[in-house]
Amino acid sequence: MGRAYSMDLRQRAMDRVAAGETCHAVAAALKVAPSSVIKWAQRQRRTGSVAPDKMGGRRPALITGEHRVWVLAMIDGSDHVTLEWLARGLQERGLKVHPANICRFLHREGKSFKKNRAASRAEQAETGTST
Q: What's residue 86's pLDDT?
């Protein structure tokens, strides 16, 4: 992600717009995208400032609270749970989530759908049991 344009550049652009130049003419003169000047003008009208908003960060988790508890209970309760089944169950509970989001949630929680046969064989070898 790039950096925000400087306040000096933003203010020079808004001074030119206030003097009557079009956003496209200002953008060409200052060598920035017309969409940037248009957005700065909109922001100035809306908030009174052309200062940039916070950039980056991460989105808050969608599956929280009782939805989180429900998903983890379903995972622990059965070995035959699919992401699509969980997505349908969450939608019935009022939370529309894509199966990929559920996969990312389970990854963050340390859960996995993979059947790790090598790890299973290693455990059996350590305990002396066989299948």
A: 93
Tokens, residue 57: 């960060």
Q: Please give the structure tokens belonging to residue 18.
A: 């206030």
Number of domains in the chain: 2
Indicate if 79 and 26 belong to the same structural domain.
no
pLDDT at 111: 83
Average pLDDT of the residues of the chain = 86
For residues 78 and 116, membership in a common domain is answered with yes
Contact 62, 76 (CB under 8 A): no
> Chain-centre distance of CA 70, in angstroms?
22
Q: Which domain holds residue 31?
A: 7-47
CA-to-CA separations, 18 to 22, 79, 89, 95, 106, in angstroms, rounded: 9, 65, 54, 46, 52
Confidence of residue 56 (pLDDT cuts 50, 70, 90): confident
The per-residue DSSP string of 98-119 comes to -HHHHHHHHHHTT------HHH
- For tokens 């989001």, what's the residue? 101
97 phi, psi to nearest 5 deg: -135, 140
